[in-house]
Amino acid sequence: MTAGAVGLSRRAFVGAAALGPALVGCRQPDDARTVKLAVRATLPAERAALEHTIAGFTRATGLAVRLEVITDEYMDVLRSRFAARKTPDVFYLEAAEAPQLIASDVLVPLDDDAQGLDDFYPQFLAAFRGADHRLYCLPKDYSTLALYINTAQLARAGFKPADVPEDFAPLMAFVKRVQARLPEGSAAMIYERDLARHLAAIECYGRPVIDAAGRARLAGEPGVTAYLETFVRGRRERWLFSPKDDFGSDSPGAAFGSGRTAMMMDGNWVVASLRKDYPEVEFAVRPLPRVNGKPQTMAFVVGLGVSRFGANVAGGIAFARYMSGAGMADWSRQSGTLPSRRSVASTLDLTHDPVMSVHTSAADYATVWSRGTALPVVNTNFGNQFLAALNGSKTVAEALADAERDANRELARQ
After folding, report:
1. 281 and 311: one domain?
2. For 354-388, how does the pLDDT look when each residue is reduced to its tens digit (9 = 90+)?
3. Do 119 and 159 belong to one domain?
4. Does the residue 3 lie in any domain?
5. Which residue(s) pair with 216 in the sheet?
6. Can you give the CATH number for the domain in which 342 is found?
7. In the predicted model, is pLDDT for residue 11 greater than 80?
8. Same structural domain for residues 401 and 255?
């Protein structure tokens, strides 16, 4: 695939809508003194944290930042900008989305501009490397999944957090026992069906979901089938619930905070909302259950990429270096995100936070949500077929076989 095609042929790009760019730092400088930064739309608190960190960057470098918050589908807008070669200088890029842009040769390699690479979690760096082994994004922060326990709800069923098993199969048996003791309308546990929540557990059985040739490998592993069948059985027998399908809520955290469920497996992004919106709710946090005897969780990593077509590439590199280096502690402190450098986590003393320490400790073994350019296709087909299994229209074995077949057919056509 050529750079001119920008690797973006799978979508037509029209109508990219975004908030107007805001200049942060000083007034109307020329392009050489301005860095254009694009980010996803975020909550006001995170926007304020970003503007605080930008102010620190401006003080350190003398460069202003023109901030653009993209309110429509973020990656669609970015791809359209790359297709037109009218890009920001630097932008947020999730690890799952990075491989396509890296393969399209539209990003500036950052190996020579990164400092202290051994301070980052190695799998975070690996997610942003290309086939040439060069580094194309600098990780700025991440989230992991953990098991959240509403201690009051668990107590209603006669249990305490210490009773919660640490392995998957015993945990699911425990969930069933808890459900039997809860009143009607309450859930022992809520779950999400996306592959992004299950990839680490599935790969605990020893086979990658996408092989070295870029083909889906979903079917034929008995352990994976049994693992996913647990969710189908739990949904059918009504001891596992979907927050959206069963409670009409897009937010597992809201279901948890409002007392609708005793347990959930979710990310550290829920902590701020739980503490702010549900301050009366007492909760404990534990690592996700071991699967096949192995510790597992997912890591959702966000990096900073620099466009080859930016008006101020040097400024974009400077901002990426700052956010992933000298400015990381300030950013993490203000935003509540987890720093991708071990030294910054130590500086912020996260290991002594009873909630955040669970998430940061999991980074050592976490599976990054990123599996090359084939992941979007495999993810969509898995989601469609697993939903069919959850709804009872096919078995899990059939769903996995169909997902693998359909994904590989689609990949072969690309």
Report:
1. no
2. 999 999 999 999 999 999 999 999 999 999 999 99
3. no
4. no
5. 210
6. 3.40.190.10
7. no
8. yes
Q: Does residue 5 lie within any of the structural domains?
A: no
Same domain, 85 and 119: yes
Q: What is the pLDDT of residues 45-81, one digit of tens each?
A: 899 999 999 999 999 999 999 999 999 899 999 999 9
Structural domain that includes position 381: 144-298+372-413
Do residue 153 and residue 250 come from a single domain? yes
The answer to whether the Cα torsion of 210, 211, 216, 217 is positive or negative is negative
User: How much is the pLDDT for 30?
Assistant: 59
Q: Which residue has the higher pLDDT, 4 or 399?
A: 399
Total number of domains in the chain: 2
For the cut 50, the answer to whether the pLDDT of residue 220 exceeds it is: yes
